[in-house]
Design brief:
By secondary structure, the protein is α/β, with parallel strands linked by helices. It is built from eleven helices and 14 strands. Strands 3-4-2-1-5-6-7-12 form an eight-stranded mixed sheet, sandwiched between helices. Strands 8-11 form a two-stranded parallel sheet. A two-stranded parallel ribbon has the order 9-14.
Length: 353
Amino acid sequence: MRVLVTGAAGFIGFHVVKRLIERGDTVVGFDIINDYYDVNLKYARLEECGIERGSIFLNTPTTGTKYPNYTFVQAKLEDNEYMQSLFEEKNFDRVVHLAAQAGVRYSLKNPKAYIDSNILGTMNILEMCRKFPVEHLVYASSSSVYGSNTQMPFSPSGPVDHPLSLYAASKKSNEMMAHVYSHLFGVPTTGLRFFTVYGPWGRPDMALFIFTKNIMENRPIQIFNNGDMERDFTFVDDIVSGIVAVLDSPPQPDESLQDEADPSQSSAPFRVYNIGNGNPVPLMDFVNEIEETLGKKAEKQFLPMQPGDVPRTWSDTSKLTKDVGYKPQVDVKEGIRRFLDWYREFYNSSEDS
């Protein structure tokens, strides 16, 4: 298949690209490479797929040295003119749209970035998939859409009417926009609500990365809500397996689906799923596992809940299991070990070079 992957220099996007090119798909990676976090990590991910830093120029596709079926382009989702020329030239079969301005806390400081990337950018993707019809658009939503919902586990059929951050609101908006395009224009769309993804090549603004860095550098770690938190930590390889399984199973129109109260399905070719581990872990157990694996205790600062955050997440993935056979394989102990192995190797080799 000819597949466009947006956010290809990002954490999940990098892993998706690698899985697709290694199975033989022809992949175009797309990313603006912004400086929300260390761009050196983004360039290192690209180099892992054979895209050399010096070969990257704005709006100019470059083919990788490692995989002849992989091309990367640095461009903006909001650049409608360039997006149109890319879709026209490449004739994509399917699209995995992962590019977004991430982060709940950052949305309190820079809300406009979320409108530009998550709303306008997704609008452009939807328009391109309408103008140049694709077999399936899979896009990233988030567990953040559940907001103040306290019905556990979170079900994709449950209410998502009270988001607690602009990031969450932008992701709920993406789901609603996708439904409009599925309903009016027949664009097959599937949204995936990610639950706390972690693993090698992860984002430096996420808990595992921050905790590991601070513990290794003898600096304190911040524990919010005084440690009374639970997260449905999901290893990135399990997430990628779910994304690829979904990509290969486009939703079909189903006139029998008349219950419009369920936001996860429709008579249109539209679906939304949770994609998580289905096994929430107390934050302090997560920290203890990091300490044990590192062989080093953390200095902890206990703080109140951060604005926009939620105390617990827990994914009901039964619909995804039923429809595509999704089944997470990696538990937290193994996942943390794999991350720490990568972290030590990557940052030791970075310092050596």
